[in-house]
User: Fold these one by one.
Assistant:
Number 1:
Amino acid sequence: MSKITRRNALALGFSTCVQVTTGRPSRAAAPDRIPDLDRMGNSYLSEGKTDASLSLQSVGSIKALMVFVDFADAPGAFGSTEGVADHLTGNGKAESWFRDQSHGRLSLEIYRISGWRRMPKPSTSYTGSDKHFTFQQQKAYITDAAALFPELDFRTHPLLFVVGAKTDAIAVSPTFIAPPANAPVTLTGPIRWGVTFGKDSYTNNHINLCHEVCHTLGLPDLYNFAPFGFTTGAWDIMCDIFRGTSLIGWHRHKLGWLADERKVYLARGQLEAVLTPLPGRTRISMIVAPADGTLNPSQVYALELAQPIQGRDGTTTGDGVLVYSVDASVPTGKSPVRIVPAKTTTSPIYGELFEAPFSSGSTLDDPTLPFSLSIKAKCTDGYVVALKMR
């Protein structure tokens, strides 16, 4: 008989910083009213307002079910599936990651049904020659998997993780997002959201799961599909899952995780303030400036403190002020977020743009940008920055 187990989300502590602000910035919107970006027809996984009809709620609690399937041509590894689940979740790190990144506003609860169950077809029948799913192939795969678990209730657990036995036939671990009319149907309702874990998940760490779940919340891929490249570096896990550890401030804002008092929208005028770390609880941690209009922009620029990057050798890096643009009109997989780098260096350990943040004493006065920036000093828990709109 299958056993359902649960891994609760773990809360992490927060750091604080004393805030110093000078000047009186003129804003076209209040600090807690950064305008929704104009998606300009780009509705699927955009950097604009999340489409609630296609995405899971990003505030509150998400209950997920994790099931394990194998195949006649790829039997599951001998022994318990708990070890596989522990690897995919990082022994609870994935759950605590969402608690941390959301500042306690979202909890992910993963319930496991232990033991392998045999799929009705061989693994090679579910994907094409490229060993990747099309939407219809992934839908058929999820439909067959769900049928093996009649005890599942998608009314209370809307997110399904299907873990396949390790096989070359299913190479990667994509997210599944389906509109109601095209979702797999079960006795307890449609399956709208899921992740199908393939061979790569056996070597990737828990950030793989976090990345895919973030798609179900409405976040796009930041890396470039073709030509392939980690164009945002490891500064956000929606780009580089191998070195990234966190989400940029814009994504925390987009998901409703960054408190109003933690962000400023500067449409005109100037501002001098201390930028404090995103993991903190209080004070300004992100400044946003419009690029193409103040009340209804499609593109903005954001400033925040760089968060750690995990190198391939286990070491970390990341310090200074990170500057980037966000464009809601750019589709997922075509670099909707672009770093404005202090340096463009690349490292096999830390990836692309690992030296992008600006350090104390730096200035940024590119006439193509809607602002000029001066990094005046580093203090105990942040950086003093001066931003002036053109």
Number 2:
Amino acid sequence: MSAITHMTVDADEFLLGRVLSRDPGAEVELERAVPAANQVMPYLWVAGVQLPEFERRVRTSPHVRRLVAVDVVNNQGMYRIEWADDGESLLHGIRETGATILSARGADTWKFVLQFEDYGGLARFHNYCRQKDIDVSLDMAYSPDELEATSEYDRRTEL
């Protein structure tokens, strides 16, 4: 039985959070898409900032190979980000433990909803974070069979 977890992590605990939190006021939401490439999170939506300034700041990070503006809608930008290295421990842990990111958004603090194939995957992820000294708060964990209706499932996967 799969396990779904809601977790909170400070931006300074993972590379994506550190790179994107350099722009005060930025609200970032990861796009739910299945990338064909081997990257965990290549697409994100950004709001709450001047997009040209955001782009300039992110592109100056030595960890970012390329930032591509895909769309701009109502002062929100959708970007594809390519990392210069694979130094992202949190995202690497998500990938290595077989988790699926159902949703993720943040600024100074990030909220993730992850789905694991089973509770063993969740335990491996938790152990991975402890070994890498990533301070993650697991706020809630449940199995889909614990939910009474589809609408309840939809509500719980939203942040």
Number 3:
Amino acid sequence: MQTQISHQILSTESGREAESILRNCVHCGFCTATCPTYQILSDELDSPRGRIYQIKQLLEGAQASSSVQQHLDRCLLCRSCETTCPSGVEYGRLLEIGRSHLVDHYHRPLGERLKRWLLRKLIPNKTYFAALLRVGQALKPLLPLKLGHNIPSRNKMPAAAWPTGDHPRKMLILDGCVQPSLAPSINLATAQVLDRVGISLIRTPSAGCCGAVEHHLDDAAAAKNTARRNIDHWWPHLQAGAEALIVTASGCAQMIKDYGHLLADDPEYAEAAQQLAAHTLDIAEVIDREELEPLKRSVNKQTRIAFHSSCTLQHGQGLAGCVEGILDRLGYQLTLVQDPHLCCGSAGTYSLLQPGLADELGRRKSQSLTADRPDIIATANIGCLTHLQKHSTLPVIHWIELLNSDNFTP
């Protein structure tokens, strides 16, 4: 694709990066076939190809507008188009550059700015989030059905205790911001499963949010500060011999694996960020490398599992088929899922900012997951888990809980 980006923008690193990405695009349109928003809206401007053209025009000097902002906001950043693209266009990075340009050249209406500010302040703070969630759950029976439907049901903290075994092999684990309140059983199940394969987990609750919420809501400075804080908490453990940082939410894993890029221009943190990113593993990567025999006693071979591979697992981290392979090796029955590459509509804060599109995608994904009559739906990301619970009558769990006989009964 030919470009005429202004010299001022080309003098910046992001501008040169954008030009390189744009020149790789051959306008083939393969991306439109796998874009969730294009499938629903049938609007070229709401496809990756259309958004690429709009970003190109912005960088070439076109006026930023509410219309362009709307089309870029509607992107889920699922990156399914990247998996499909034969030219290797880094669409996700280009969208980040385009959105950053809009932040500098277009001011959202006050109501939108306030909503996004509240999300940035409340979601990453697990104390605030937990308190608001408890209030919402207490008031849920009194709320209108449509509003109450969006509030997750209360999840009790499992009675099982965190393993106390002190194994020679040690790894860190991300506590996260919303997962401890929404699904406290996930990290506990992870600790118990890894204990059975000889790995002890080190908890670092003060590390907090991974920074994805701030990053995706256009607060780059806050995301970088969050990354620096987390590095300060995690880096000493890695230097002391911890093998890796394990993340059970695939969206957070994708974010932390990008710390090297996020802090590339920070002379104090760039190297540590690169090293941390290299030592960050999705829990699927860890289990896939281990001997599975100690875990087979948990398997109920009669249980039929529909696995939803989150976008951040299969497209963002490139781990398509990893969890399915683990479950198959353990003896689980996996049901057929139509269009497994498509997003469920959660996408971080997307379901709060674009509820209409998110709910339609959630309904479609639920239909494809349940068509082959599974007993349970499993996924790899807390956002997907919570969103799918709204649209399915079947239990929705994190797949690691299937491997934990001490805390989960199919």
